[in-house]
Design goal:
10 helices; nine-stranded mixed β-sheet; alpha/beta
């Protein structure tokens, strides 16, 4: 079990917003993650909701900007936010661009030689981090859900679709729904996974949902209509909805008038997403 080092702790809505660091055996570097511990966790085990952030973000963006602590406190829900990539592993070129390398792990397990020893964010998020949370915090291990934004929305969708039954529910803000068909995804997948596009399908939600055969999932997606990245073809939610329809997967896509890609958008609808997850966590917890 990885030992945890406290980084910060702030009293918030009766609970505590904390940040920890640890040496990751998966990523082979020191990683930070944040945990919101509601007051209820002092007396009992609570459900846990994992948030995956987008390009350029760290564990700090969500906890500083989303305003989720009030809703988490009221619900007795723990929220965990990992960083978005390995840090400081000294790979040539890892800091050259905002959409690849540092801050842009894309929640895949890299197979290309240059990246494969460190860039394994999929395994970190789905295996190592939950083991750390379950071993160190008062959580109900079978009561976990996942959501995220942009690159992290892509991450949340693929984590749920690749692990049937592991998460009680999934939702996303402005997710990269079909990375094989957009510039962000094509750059990241080529760099981390190589040129064989068949291997890319294992990390593309639009392809994964077509063959999903696990327990029922009701997917909630919020997308701003004034999102520049939507207009540039980076997100492609319609492709994902069509694939869901093909496999009879329930999905709710809410196109929100006048909203963009920012945390102002996330903060506006974060309560809806937490309520979505509580509905399904409540069935199991």
């Amino acid at each position: 079990m990885s030992s945890l080092t406290p980084v910060s702790s702030s009293h918030c809505f009766g609970g505590y917003q904390k940040v920890y660091s640890h040496e990751s055996s998966t990523l082979k570097c020191k990683m930070n993650f944040s945990v919101y511990l509601p007051l209820q966790a002092e007396d009992k085990k609570v459900p846990v909701l994992y948030w995956l952030s987008g390009l350029t973000c760290t564990e700090q963006n969500f906890i500083q900007k989303a305003g989720a602590q009030r809703n988490s406190a009221e619900a007795g829900l723990m929220i965990v936010c990992p960083d978005t990539s390995p840090r400081g592993v000294n790979i040539e070129g890892e800091d050259d661009s905002y959409d690849f390398g540092s801050g842009a792990g894309f929640y895949v397990d890299a197979t290309e030689e240059k990246w494969k020893n460190h860039y394994k964010m999929y395994s970190y998020v789905t295996k190592e981090l939950p083991e750390i949370i379950n071993g160190n915090f008062p959580v109900l291990p079978n009561c976990q859900s996942i959501f995220g934004h942009s690159m992290g929305g892509h991450g949340a969708l693929i984590c749920a679709l690749k692990n049937p039954g592991k998460y009680c529910s999934v939702s996303a803000f402005s997710p990269i729904c079909n990375p094989m068909e957009c510039p962000w995804g094509q750059k990241a997948f080529t760099g981390y996974l190589g040129k064989d596009k068949e291997t890319w399908k294992e990390y593309d939600a639009t392809h994964l949902v077509k063959k999903y055969q696990g327990p029922p999932l009701t997917i909630l997606i919020d997308q701003g209509k004034d999102d520049n990245f939507l207009k540039e073809g980076q997100l492609l939610p319609d492709n994902f909805v069509a694939a869901c329809t093909e496999n009879n997967m329930p999905v709710v896509l809410r196109m929100q008038e006048s909203y963009d890609h920012s945390y102002y958008f996330i903060a506006t609808f974060i309560e809806d997403h937490i309520k979505h997850h509580l509905e399904y966590l409540g069935m199991k917890c």
